[in-house]
Amino acid sequence: MRQSILFTLFTLLSIVTAHNVLLPSNGKRCFFEELKKNDELALSFQYGNRDSRATDQLTGDFWITSPSGRILKQEVGVSHGDVQIKASDSGKYGYCFSNEYSSIDTKDVSFNIHGVVYIDVNDPESNSLDAAVRRLSVLASEVKNEQGYIVVRERTHRNTAESTNDRVKYWSIFQLIVVAANAVFQIYYLKRFFEVKSVV
Q1: What is the DSSP letter of 23?
Q2: Per the CB 3.0–4.6 Å rule, which of 45, 106, 143, 150 could disulfide with 50?
Q3: What is the domain extent for residue 41?
Q4: Considering the entire predicted model, what is its pTM?
C-alpha cells in the first residue's frame, strides 16, 4: 500500500513541470514530450525580459508539432498563451519557442507543462483516490501557473512605472530650470528698461 502511494506521488510529480529558459537572439528552443494516444498536453507560457530596466512586453512565436512533424498549434507574435492538445497518436510531441526574428538576447520564457493521462471511463478504478489526487494536482498546477504569470506581469508593469517616474522627474527638473532662467531674464530686462540715462 505504501509503495503504491509513493509511486502515485512520483508519477504526479513527473506530470507537472515548470521551466524558465533564455532564448538566444535569432534562435529558438525546442522541447519534447512522450505522449500516448488520448493523453492531453497543456502548456502555458509567458515571454519576459531578464533586463531589470526593460519596460517593453516582449513577444515571440510558439508551435507544437506531432510525431510526424506536422504543426498542430501555432502562435505568432504573442506575449503569453495557454495551449492544450489531445494526442491523436502515440509518440514524441515537440513544442518550440522562437526568437528567430529578433536580436534581443535577454528574452526569457517561463512556461509550465501539465499533462492529463487518459483514463478510461469504463475503468472501475477511475473514481478512486488516485483520480481525485490527479484532479487536485491539476487544479494546484493551474493556480501555480496563474501565480507565475502574475509575477511576470507585475515585474513588467513595475519597470514601466519606474521608467515613467524617471521621465516625470527629469521633465520637472527641466521645467524648473526654464522657469528660473525666465525669471532671471525678466528681472534683468525690467532693470534695464527702468534705468535712467542722463546725457551730459
Answers
A1: P
A2: 106
A3: 2-156
A4: 0.53
